[in-house]
Write a structure and sequence with these properties.
The complex is a heterodimer of chains A (about 425) and B (about 600).
Chain A: E1 3-6, H1 8-23, E2 32-35, H2 40-46, H3 49-52, E3 55-59, E4 73-76, H4 78-88, E5 92-95, E6 98-101, E7 104-109, E8 117-124, E9 127-133, E10 148-153, H5 160-167, H6 172-191, E11 194-205, E12 208-211, E13 214-219, H7 223-230, H8 245-256, E14 260-265, E15 272-277, H9 279-294, E16 300-305, H10 310-324, E17 333-339, H11 347-360, H12 362-367, E18 370-375, H13 381-395, E19 399-402, H14 410-420
Parallel strand pairs in A: 15-16, 15-17, 17-18, 18-19
Antiparallel strand pairs in A: 1-13, 2-7, 3-4, 3-7, 5-6, 8-9, 8-11, 9-10, 11-12, 11-13, 14-16
Chain B: E1 13-16, H1 20-33, E2 40-44, E3 50-56, E4 59-66, H2 69-75, E5 81-84, H3 91-99, E6 106-109, H4 116-128, E7 132-134, E8 141-143, E9 147-148, H5 156-161, E10 170-174, H6 177-190, E11 194-199, H7 210-218, E12 225-231, H8 236-245, E13 253-258, H9 285-294, H10 306-319, H11 338-343, E14 358-359, E15 366-367, E16 370-371, H12 372-377, H13 382-391, H14 397-410, H15 418-428, H16 433-441, H17 451-464, H18 469-479, H19 498-510, H20 515-528, H21 538-552, H22 558-567, H23 569-591
Parallel strand pairs in B: 1-2, 1-5, 2-4, 5-6, 6-7, 10-11, 10-12, 12-13
Antiparallel strand pairs in B: 3-4, 8-9, 8-11, 14-15, 15-16
Helix pairs in contact in B: 3-4, 7-8, 8-9, 13-14, 14-19, 14-23, 15-16, 15-23, 16-23, 17-21, 17-23, 18-20, 19-21, 20-21
Classes of the chains: A alpha+beta (about 425), B alpha/beta (about 600).
Chain lengths: ~425, ~600
């Protein structure tokens, strides 16, 4: 869904491939990807430059400030690169508050250089903004006043005239080259449905632009237009987002269906768990538990929408209930089965899957002293709610059931009261 | 972008990509509001033309269907709203052509997943030409008592519950379509109801923004207060903050931005809506709520308190005398659809068809209760499928194998038999496969191919009544009936039909009992004593052995066996088998490009 970060390796792959298609000129970019499964001998055979040139190696993990964090090694030979990678592969690092293991590296030729240029393109509502600076590199933030920015409205052709303010102060001998480079990159940006692209820095090798560091984001809803152009593209999870087995199971389920199934564990020891219909409503339920002061007890974020079928809901609900009922500690817990008033989803039908899962997990629910709170409206909601009430009596688990007459998040308050009440 | 009302009680729309339910919901809403004209003027269904029948109240109306956007706009020049139900792949292209029509003013795009760059083209075009885009990724919007887009506001019950059939005083705009329905309900509970509600959609760049609609509501005199439900991600709420700060919005604004929970996530998080992504601090729900509060909007402390502040704001307006009391009307009753009424258990209706052999309503089709996947996974053959669909039970492997052998043996009998001949003649007349096949099949009957059935019937009758072969054959002779299954054009007593021998050998090896076959052999022994060509032929062998299959398997009651023989199942076996051959003859003639067949004069005896 929507804007997705891609690895530096893929950004450069797309740049090289399509720069050539668009301009006829091949950028001399060389880069290799190293992961846990990389066989260094095989890689060296495939990319002979690895053995013949001095190299740069750095993590390719969607986070920046790698230079400042000492994660970039320069001027190494291939054996040294292998050692550098070996020492760090799978090791956890912390970047701006997110912790996670490093799983992917990018290796490139070491390019000694003097000039460091900055180029950034961002897609915006009414067009794209393009920023450029001749003082790029690690100190870009300190030199922010030297960054020039133009805005290219949607549909306006990107001519040298439009580009002029960016390159006005460049020395004559490189101006035309950089002007041409920016124009091709911008064409490529639009042609490949990039939403963000940054080179910090790019330099000149033999007078030709050469990106040293690059970041990119693609609009993944445009995948259907770009299957061929993007090739075998990877959309990695944000850095620090490590899925546990239950989360990956739901993620896999989500990718197989046209419906939407989301599940994130926030606190495995939390005592309030949610299973909410609808993209908008699910966020609000999680918000409300937090806004009422019980963020620390919120077990998860969970959303199902887009009319999943009964079987999908069943599998989904099983996972949520398993997590919610893990390691009973004798204290009460609450499961919030929430949702707004649906426009067209058949409430009774989606509830069937949840009810089946609740029945299966009866003993686990009892062991965890689970109290269930239900609120939902929409087509056929009366039947869905009636079934939920009957279920409560049938399996002997406390279930409170509300329809559209009640406020949507009233059950969050009840859930909080439940877990805070004595015994 | 328009600066005031988008819709009225006479607004008509063109609906792109026919969907029965949302259109019917729009028409039901129209009827509920007492509209005189339906709000859908025409439907565009690429590649189709004609009419679609839908209900307008109790009456059925025919709504014209056009194959192109241009044709629909030309036919309905007063329809100025374009409701686009195209898929995310084609939504952008159809929306841009709609925007280019001079008669279209508003385009609503329902699809989720329209590429950002495509939406940006739409935004640019709409801005340059003073048009409005609602969506993508939205349910639409509603002007209470006037006009409703597609599925907005859900069921009729909900629309009545939320009093959306008549205008109230609240303008509402949200990103989420699902939440818009929830808020219609909330707002109806604590105010005099919605005047207009719009869901702009959850994308990063929606076609029109929260602030676009707030500013528009500010210009609509009937709107007295404005409710906004924003979301983390993006900066749209800040345009609203600016507008509030600049005093461009003079009516009270009650706002809440959802997504405060994003800070509970350890890494960057993408929620259900494409636009709902945690980014910088400015894009957080907390920052936006604070900015709106600082700019003068009424912002609660949590969503749970949203309803209370909406109530308070409305009551203050009432106290200030700014709200004219709404004249309550009772909306007409909408006749319930038969399907809905049945589903809710209110009425029952007789069915017109009964079926017991297969069911295609579940996850996958079932043959007599066996799902298609098990049929494939367990390596079932055609014989097994026939036992399921014809006999409604799984038969043992030897039975299904026997059925398969019968089919193989009967699949074809050369080009000269009447069925194949007819097929060949038809194929050569240039007719299609089905015509050629059925012209051959139509010859099957008492003289061609019917012998298996008859053989089974007569052998069964004679054996069950305990007739000796002598009594049987002689009684048939008396009635002037040739014994079916006996006699061959070429084969003789000393030159048996190889196929018959194979069948008999198979049955002797595998069948628990072959008493009907033994009886047929005794009959043959007697007939051979009369003439050397009166051998048991393949029809007689299949007919008698099928009786053994039914009786010997122990899976059929006597009554069922009688019925099977009576209905003529064995003829079905022949029809099925011979279709294979007839299809082959059709293909053969087509491949050989044979010209029209004409029977030669020389071969006809012309006589008086």
């Amino acid at each position: 869904m929507a804007r997705k970060k891609i690895r530096e390796y893929d950004s450069k792959r797309l740049l090289k491939e399509h720069f050539k298609r668009i301009s006829g000129y091949e950028l001399p970019i060389k880069s290799a990807q190293v992961t846990e499964s990389t066989d260094f001998n095989e890689l060296a055979e495939k990319e002979p430059w690895l053995s013949s040139s001095k190299l740069v190696v750095k993590p390719d993990m969607l986070f920046g400030k790698r230079g400042k964090s000492g994660l970039v090694a320069l001027n190494l030979d291939f054996a040294q690169v292998a050692i550098f990678v070996k020492e760090r592969l799978g090791k956890e690092v912390e970047m701006s508050g997110c912790k996670g293991p490093i799983t992917t590296f990018i290796v490139e030729p070491f390019i000694p250089h003097n000039e460091e240029f900055y180029l950034n393109i961002v897609s915006d509502r009414l067009g794209c903004s393009i920023s450029f600076s001749e003082c790029g590199g690690i100190e870009i933030e300190e030199n922010w006043d030297k960054v020039k920015t133009i805005f290219v409205p949607t549909g306006v052709p990107f001519t040298s005239e439009v580009c002029a303010p960016l390159v006005a102060t460049l020395p004559l001998e490189i101006k035309a080259e950089i002007d041409g480079f920016i124009k091709v990159v911008f064409t490529l940006f639009q042609d490949l449905d990039f939403t963000f692209l940054e080179m910090n820095p790019f330099t000149l090798v033999n007078g030709k632009p050469y990106p040293l560091d690059m970041r990119g984001e693609l609009d993944d809803t445009a995948a259907f237009k770009n299957f061929k152009k993007w090739g075998n593209i990877e959309f990695p999870l944000p850095f620090g987002r490590v899925m546990n087995t239950t989360e990956s199971f739901i993620h896999g389920l989500d990718e197989k269906t046209s419906a939407s199934l989301k599940f994130t564990v926030l606190n495995p020891k939390g005592r309030i768990w949610t299973m909410v219909a609808g993209g908008g409503a699910s966020v609000i339920y999680a918000d409300t538990v937090g806004d009422l002061g019980f963020a620390n007890e919120l077990g998860n974020y969970a959303e199902y929408s887009g009319a999943p079928n009964e079987e999908e809901v069943l599998q989904y609900a099983r996972v949520v209930i398993d997590c919610a009922t893990a390691d009973p500690d004798g204290r009460k817990r609450a499961l919030v089965v929430g949702g707004g008033i649906a426009n067209f989803t058949d409430v009774a039908a989606t509830f069937n899957g949840i009810i089946r899962a609740l029945k299966e997990k009866e003993s686990k629910l009892k062991a965890a002293r689970m109290h269930i709170y239900v609120r939902r409206g929409g087509p056929n909601y009366q039947r869905g709610l009636a079934k939920m009430r009957t279920l409560g009596e049938e399996i002997g688990i406390p279930i409170e059931v509300y329809g559209p007459e009640a406020t949507m998040t009233g059950i969050c308050k009840e859930a909080i009261q439940c877990i805070t009440a004595a015994a | 972008m328009a600066t005031g009302q988008l819709f009225s009680r006479t607004t008509q729309a063109l609906f792109y990509n026919y969907k029965q339910l949302p259109i019917q919901r729009m028409l039901d809403f129209d009827f509920l509001c007492g509209r005189e004209t339906p709000s859908v003027a025409g439907i565009i269904n690429p590649g189709a033309e004609g009419f679609q029948k839908l209900f307008f109240g109790q009456e059925e109306i025919a709504i014209p269907v056009h194959s192109t956007i241009e044709a629909a706009c030309a036919a309905h020049p007063t329809a100025d709203v374009f409701i686009n139900f195209a898929s995310f792949r084609s939504a952008a292209a159809s929306s841009i052509s709609a925007l280019k029509q001079p008669t279209i003013r508003v385009v609503a795009i329902i699809a989720e997943g329209v590429p950002e760059s495509d939406t940006k083209q739409l935004i640019a075009y709409a801005r340059a030409n003073n048009k409005v885009v609602i969506g993508p990724a939205t349910v639409g919007g509603i002007q209470a008592g006037a006009f409703k887009i597609g599925d907005t506001a859900g069921t009729i019950d909900n629309i009545i519950q939320c009093k959306l059939y008549r205008p109230g005083s609240v303008g509402f705009v949200s990103k989420s379509g699902g939440m818009s329905n929830e808020l219609y309900n909330t707002i109806a509970r604590v105010t005099d109801g919605i005047y207009e509600g719009i869901a702009i959609g959850g994308d990063v760049f929606p076609g029109s923004t929260l602030s676009d609609h707030v500013l528009r509501f500010n210009n609509i005199p009937q709107v007295k207060m404005i409710v906004v439900l924003g979301e983390l991600g993006g900066r749209d709420e800040y345009s609203l903050v600016e507008a509030l700060k600049q005093g461009k919005v003079t009516k009270p604004v009650v706002a809440w931005v959802s997504g405060t929970c994003a800070r509970l996530f350890k890494s960057e998080v993408q929620f259900g809506h494409a636009g709902a992504k945690s980014g910088g601090e400015l894009e957080s729900a907390q920052a936006k709520n604070q900015a709106l509060r600082d700019a003068g909007a009424v912002v609660p402390t949590s969503y749970e308190a949203f309803e209370i502040v909406i109530k308070e704001t409305f009551e203050k307006l009432v106290e200030e005398g700014k709200i004219t009391p709404v004249k309550e009307v009772t909306p007409p009753q909408i006749p319930e659809d038969l399907n809905t009424a049945i589903k809710s258990g209110k009425v029952r209706a007789p069915t017109h068809i009964i079926s017991t052999i297969s069911d295609d309503r579940g996850e996958e089709p079932c043959y007599a209760g066996v799902p298609m996947s098990s049929i494939v996974e367990q390596g079932y053959g055609v014989g097994d499928v026939i036992s399921l669909l014809w006999f409604k039970r799984s038969l043992p492997r030897y039975c299904t194998q026997f059925i398969e052998i019968c089919i193989m043996l009967c699949a074809d009998h050369g080009p000269c038999v009447s069925g194949a001949h007819n097929t060949i003649v038809t194929a050569r007349a240039g007719k299609d496969l089905v015509s050629s096949l059925v012209s051959g099949l139509l010859t099957i009957g008492p003289r061609f191919g019917g012998a298996i059935d008859d053989a089974a019937r007569y052998f069964k009758d004679a054996y069950d009544r305990g007739l000796t072969p002598y009594e049987f054959v002689e009684s048939m002779k008396k009635k002037g009936i040739r014994v079916p299954g006996i006699g061959h054009r070429i084969k003789r007593g000393d030159n048996r039909d190889k196929r018959v021998e194979l069948l008999q050998e198979f049955a002797r090896t595998h069948f628990p009992s072959v008493r009907y076959m033994e009886y047929a052999v005794q009959v043959e022994t007697y007939t051979l004593s009369k003439a050397n060509n009166l051998v048991l032929n393949v029809d007689g062998a299949i007919g008698s052995l099928f009786l053994d299959l039914l009786a010997g398997s122990g899976l059929f009651t006597k009554q069922e066996i009688d019925e099977i023989v009576e209905i003529g199942y064995l003829n079905g076996l022949f029809v099925l088998a011979r279709s294979i051959g007839l299809i082959g003859h059709t293909f053969d003639q087509k491949r050989l490009k044979q010209p029209l067949y004409r029977h030669p004069w020389e071969d006809v005896l012309y006589t008086k």
